[in-house]
Amino acid sequence: MSTEAKPVGSLGVAMKRKEDPRFIQGKGHYVDDISLPGMLYMALVRSTYPHAEITSIDIGEAMKVPGVKAVITGQDLVAAGLGWLPTFHGLDKQMVLAVGKVLFQYQEVAAVFAETRGAAADGAEAVQVGYKPLPVVADPFTAKEDKVILRADREQKTNHIYHWEVGDRDRTVQALAASPKRISQRIWFQRCHPAPLEPCGCVALFDTMGRLQFHVTSQAPHVYRTALAIVTGIPEDKIHVISPDIGGGFGNKVPVYPGYVCAIVGALKLARPVKWIETRTENLTSTGFARDYHMDVELGATAEGRLTALRVSTAADHGAFDAAADPTKYPAGMFGVVTGSYDIPAAHAEVDAYFTNKAPGGIAYRCSFRVTEASFAIERAMDILADELQMDAVELRRKNFIRKEQFPYPSPLGFTYDSGDYQKTLDTALEKIGYKELLAEQAAKRAKGELMGIGISTFTEVVGAGPSKHFDILGIKMFDSAEIRIHPTGAGIVRAGTKSQGQGHETTWAQIVAEELGLDPQNIMVEEGDTDTAPYGLGTYASRSTPVAGAAIAMAARRIREKARKIAAHLLEVGEADVEWKDYTFQVKGVPAKSVTMKQVAFAAYTNMAQNEPGLEASYYYDPPNMTFPNGTYVAVVDVDRETGEVKVRKFLAVDDCGTIINPLIVEGQIHGGLTEGFAIAFMQEIQYDAEGNNLNTNFTDYMVPTSLETPHWETAKTTTPSPHHPIGAKGVGESPNVGSPAAFVNAVIDALSPLGVRHIDMPLRRDKVWRAIRDAQARRNRP
Amino acid sequence: MKVNVKVNGISYEREVEPRTLLAYFLRESCGLTGTHVGCDTSSCGCCVVVMNGDRAVKSCTMFAAQADGHEVLTVEGLADGAKLHPLQQGFWDQHGLQCGYCTPGMLLASYALLQQNPDPTEAEIREGLAGNLCRCTGYQNIVKAVQQAADALRQPVAAK
Fold first, then answer.
1. Does A195 touch chain B (CB under 8 A)?
2. Range of the domain at B124
3. What is the rounded CA–CA span in Å between residue A729 and residue A777?
4. What is the per-residue pLDDT across A555-609, written as a single tens digit (0 to 9) for each?
5. Among positive and negative, which fits the CA dihedral A733, A738, A740, A745?
């Protein structure tokens, strides 16, 4: 063998992404790029009313539109046994096309199939639907009254979907009553929408073998395959789901949407491929929204600021169908992480969910299920309590942090936090941002009546769903998987059950394999998203990929290393027990000069394997023993214009602890992106419905997402507390910034306004709301 | 109706409906799927292409018929064979993309920006790209990418 470079590690290497060449040359392969011979286009007819009886559907005119091939309605689907599809949470189901009545504005009513995109749109406009309006239930509090029952299809005639609770209610209520200091606050985390730049869509066709080939923007292709098999009755081996390149997911592309089912029905009925790509308006008005939690938070403490109890009671607005993509046992997701980074002796959390005349959901938008709501609630409550105690918000947190020695820490709401060093992360952040100097500056500015705010968020979240003991989606446990095959020349391929929508798996998964096997990550190909070839996985969302699939990849690689060791022993002419893996090579124990590389072993696996099994391949299905608990300290510095309510984010520092880092470039990019979404949620993103059920934010001129102009500059830093149970010590990170940052922004603005006596403003902190809060506070001041 | 558009130096003569948008003409009639569609209100910028050498336009807000007789540069025309344009290299080096969906529009908008302003400040870059949304990167590395490309483009071309 020629002299090769010494194998080196790949963890922690900021290598450029391997997937980028195709994207920068416009050669990405997104679902709308697919064009097949004979392909038809589908357009959906949608309800203009939020709640109405359907009195008639007339497709006559639509069928006359040139190019229109077919129109299907809800009745057609019911006849085929496809009127309803199960939601991922399993507690509810969703109408595919409306039958009898519509339950939210923009609900799917009919599907039109035509030769061209234009003809399909023309056909959809020509479908005539008669509506008889019904009274609208516009919010969960009205829903709770059960005066107008929305879901006649359900056994229990109530708008109440479920009640969930965790913790010790009596103990918590008593502890709060006995607490010398207590705050209570209604905190609403507004309805918002992930709005990935690529809308949802699919291309469906039945091939000559009778298989359904389903190209679709899915964050969880295997789950789709199984769900489609159950819903359609097509045997699972006859379904091939392919997730191509996906232009952003953020949870929006986890649910199965009615449009997908309609496209499949059209492809079957018309024996031609059918493409359906939704418009931005359809995306914002009908696909998975997020949040919409009205939380009543009570936090108690001693006079010195030691927390005594936390109680949260939430009304959740799920829209017309509970299309939440939560694990079965967790209808309110991981909301139980609401005790956050604090050691609170008594806690109780409960969620009551309601149907309303709004789009169905909610999904986990760039977060682990419901942890953003939980994190926001506790971090706001801590600031409100600090204000009540007239204590520095940082000191209150420090006093109550879970201490390093307490890990693994059993929280009163059922989680066992794996690791963290909150004091260190906080200290790192405060030092980096110059907290003392900022406080001095703030005091000086306050003396002049200027509104400067410093906001802190010291969050802990929980990701990596999840251990089979507790987690399943539609019954399928939330493990994940990897298959690795090393080729004769030392290159290889890894296939995983996850599906990147921009997170960089083609690079990071290669880095894990390369690290474990001492190979070149440039020559490890990564494949995801094709259910014919990828091992079964639960997909990518809720920051679970590195915790679960990343672990599977490491474990599969270690299985390969074990096989390779046998061959190495043969090559080195020693017993297996005398071979050790050191410095990324197989060495004879005590004689490091006698070594072989994995590359040499790979070649031998095919050419000179002696009595060992030929080839070099392994797979691993990983059932995580626990979730992982990334955490961080975020600090926001804002200046608020008294006259206009405009908030300028002057500085933002994110110190994240996500355990072992695979690729620092990618991690930093994820943090930038997550902080930007947190910023957007704090200041501008909202899907509002008026009292009549009209959706007021239906496109990008009304649903505000930030451009490069508004987006602040992000400073990032890290501390590293590896996860003790993860094979490479990694946790998740992509969503932490979206989880932890909204509270930092809001805490900062409220801090800026605190001299005026403003205690809380619900997000988004639009300029007019901030201005109004200032003006109202001043009016209160001026009242005699 | 027939339209004839020169895209990346090649003439495409195609039959289209009058209402065909330039974005779909490029994607479907020319088979150049690098230009993307992300919204229905010309807000997102995924569809940005460069007209007649220096003007960035949102191709979802033009009819193919309006481009008849004109020249269009799309993302597929940026590289010189295998040699990446400095902007493409910048985006790759600086991790200025994640899902890649906004990237073609960002590249072309940056291209037009640098034509007008070869040495932009960060603030000028952010303002120049304010018509292009990105949901993944938070824009920070995109700014770095454009800065790298601007520096590279201002270097005198090396003698062969």
1. yes
2. 86-154
3. 49
4. 999 999 999 999 999 999 999 999 999 999 999 999 999 999 999 999 999 999 9
5. positive
Whether A115 contacts chain B with CB within 8 A: no
Same domain, A663 and A607: no
Peptide bond into A467 cis (omega under 30): no
Q: Are residues B48 and B105 in the same domain?
A: no
Contacts of B35 in chain A (CB under 8 A): 26
Token pair of A571, please? 């090559």
Of A604, A622, A640, the position where a domain reaches its end is A622
What is the torsional sign of CA A321, A323, A324, A328?
positive
**CA distance, residue A150 to nearest chain B CA (Å):** 31
User: Contact at 8 Å (CB) between A641 and A708?
Assistant: no
Secondary structure E strands in A706-781: 715-718
- The answer to whether residues A332 and A447 belong to one domain is yes
Mean pLDDT across chain A, nearest whole number? 96
Within this chain, do residues B147 and B94 fall inside the same structural domain, yes or no?
Answer: yes
Distances (CA, A) of A329 to A195, A326, B51, B94: 28, 8, 55, 42
Residue from the list B20, B97, B137 with its beta carbon closest to the beta carbon of A23: B97
pLDDT of residue A694: 98
For residue A195, is it left (φ>0), alpha (ψ between -120 and 50) or beta? Answer: left
> Chain A: residue nearest B106 by CA?
A24
> Residue A41 sits in a domain of what CATH number?
3.90.1170.50
Indicate whether B13 belongs to any domain: yes
Residue B18 lies in a domain: yes
State the best of B136, B146, B147 to mutate against chain A, taking most chain A CBs within 10 Å.
B136
Same domain assignment for residues A457 and A446 = yes
pLDDT for position A362: 87
CB A269, CB A72: distance < 8 Å: yes
Any domain includes A229: yes
CATH number at residue A659: 3.30.365.10
Any idea which residue has 């109550």 for tokens? A400
From chain B, pick out residues whose CB is under 8 angstroms from the CB of A19.
100
Question: For the purposes of burial, counting CB atoms within 10 Å of the CB of A444, is it exposed (0-12), middle (13-18) or buried (19 or more)?
Answer: exposed
- Domain holding A210, by residue range, is 34-134+198-247+253-286
How far CA B21 is from CA of A409, B58, B65, in Å, comes to 58, 10, 8
Dihedral class, residue A333 (left if φ above 0, else alpha if ψ from -120 to 50, else beta): left
A634 in any annotated domain: yes
Measure the CA–CA gap between A129 and A101, rounded to whole angstroms.
11
Q: Note the pTM of the prediction, 2 decimals.
A: 0.97
Would an 8 Å CB–CB cutoff place B84 in contact with chain A? yes
With beta carbons under 8 A apart, name residues in chain B contacting A20.
91-92, 97, 100
ipTM of the modeled complex: 0.98
Q: Is position B160 within any domain? A: no
How many domains in chain A? 3
Q: Indicate if A588 and A675 belong to the same structural domain.
A: no
| Residue found by looking up tokens 């869509």 in the block | A201
Same domain, B128 and B149: yes
Nearest to B88 among A19, A25, A707 (CB): A25
Q: Are B25 and B64 in a shared domain? A: yes
Q: Which of A35, A699, A708 sits opposite B40 (nearest CB)?
A: A699
A101 beta partners: A53
Give the span between the Cα atoms of A636 and A741, in whole angstroms.
Answer: 9
Q: B33–A32: do the CB atoms touch at under 8 Å?
A: yes
Last residue of a domain, which of B17, B44, B76? B76
In a domain, B159, yes or no: no
| Co-location of A656 and A609 in the same domain | no
User: Is A198 at the interface with chain B, CB within 8 A?
Assistant: yes
B22 and B45, same structural domain? yes
Q: How many domains is chain B built from?
A: 2
Query: What is the per-residue pLDDT for A5?
Result: 74
